[in-house]
C-alpha cells in the first residue's frame, strides 16, 4: 500500500475509534495534510472501500473501518509503535501476581484482561463489567456476551497452548478466544521465570489499539530481562 493511502486509512480508523462516526473526505482534508484535494481523497477512500478496508454505511455518509481495516491498523500498531508500560504494571507482571496484574492491566487499558499460565494451565481474568460498560446493548445480547465468557477459561487454555506468535490481533469472529463479532483481542505470549504466560486484552472493536500494543510490547521487553 502506498504511504499516502496508508496514512489516509490510519487517519480514518483513528478518528472512527475516537468518535464512532463515519469519516468524510472533507473532514480528512480539514484535519490532515495529505497534499491532495477532497476529490482525490474521495478517490483514495473509494479504493480502500473496494479493497475491503473501509465500509460506506450510507450513500451520502463517510467511511468506517471494516474488520480487515481494523486488523491492518492493529497489526501496524504492533509492528511500528514503541513499547510503553508503567512500572507498577511491570512490577506485578514480574512478581507473577496475576489477579493484581490483570486488575491494573484492565484499568489502564479500559478492557477486560485475561491470562493463562503454563504448564499449570491456570486461568485468570478481570471483571466482565470492564467490558460490558462499553456497550449499550439490550439484555438478550448482554446475556450472550456473558455466556461467551463462561467458556473463556477453556479457550484460553487451548489457545495459549498453541499460540506461536509474540503478539497478535484478532478482530470480530476471527478471534479464537471470543465468539462475539463486536469484540477485538490483542494477545501475547511471554516467558516469566520458567513459566509461559498467555495474556489477552479483550475490548470493543473501537478499543485503543495503539496504547494496548505499546503495553503488550512493554511486557515483552520485561519478560526478556
UniProtKB/TrEMBL annotation:
GO terms for molecular function: DNA binding. Keywords: Repressor, Stress response, Transcription, Transcription regulation. InterPro entries: GAF-like_dom_sf (IPR029016), HrcA (IPR002571), HrcA_C (IPR021153), WH-like_DNA-bd_sf (IPR036388), WH_DNA-bd_sf (IPR036390). The keyword Transcription applies. It comes from the Bacteria. Residues 119-212 form the Heat-inducible transcription repressor HrcA C-terminal domain. The keyword Repressor applies. One of its GO terms (biological process) is negative regulation of DNA-templated transcription. This is Heat-inducible transcription repressor HrcA C-terminal domain-containing protein. It comes from Candidatus Liptonbacteria bacterium RIFCSPLOWO2_01_FULL_56_20. The lineage of its organism: Bacteria, Candidatus Liptoniibacteriota.
Amino acid at each position: 500500500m502506498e504511504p499516502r493511502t496508508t496514512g489516509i486509512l490510519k487517519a480514518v480508523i483513528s478518528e472512527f475509534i475516537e468518535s464512532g462516526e463515519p469519516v468524510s473526505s472533507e473532514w480528512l482534508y480539514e484535519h490532515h495534510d495529505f497534499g491532495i484535494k477532497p476529490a482525490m481523497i474521495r478517490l483514495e477512500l473509494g479504493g480502500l472501500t473496494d479493497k475491503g478496508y473501509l465500509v460506506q454505511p450510507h450513500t451520502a455518509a463517510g467511511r468506517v473501518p471494516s474488520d480487515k481495516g481494523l486488523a491492518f491498523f492493529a497489526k501496524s500498531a504492533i509492528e511500528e509503535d514503541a513499547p510503553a508500560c508503567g512500572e507498577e504494571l511491570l512490577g506485578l507482571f514480574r512478581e507473577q501476581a496475576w489477579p493484581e496484574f490483570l486488575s491494573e492491566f484492565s484499568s489502564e487499558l479500559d478492557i477486560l484482561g485475561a491470562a493463562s499460565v503454563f504448564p499449570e494451565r491456570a486461568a485468570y481474568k478481570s471483571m466482565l463489567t470492564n467490558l460490558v460498560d462499553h456497550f449499550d446493548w439490550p439484555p438478550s445480547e448482554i446475556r450472550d456476551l456473558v455466556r461467551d465468557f463462561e467458556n473463556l477459561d477453556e479457550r484460553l487454555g487451548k489457545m495459549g497452548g498453541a499460540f506461536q506468535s509474540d503478539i497478535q490481533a484478532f478482530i470480530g469472529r476471527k478471534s479464537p478466544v471470543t465468539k462475539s463479532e463486536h469484540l477485538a483481542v490483542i494477545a501475547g505470549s511471554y516467558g516469566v521465570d520458567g513459566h509461559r504466560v498467555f495474556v489477552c486484552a479483550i475490548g470493543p472493536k473501537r478499543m485503543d489499539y495503539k496504547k494496548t500494543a505499546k503495553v503488550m510490547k512493554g511486557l515483552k521487553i520485561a519478560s526478556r530481562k
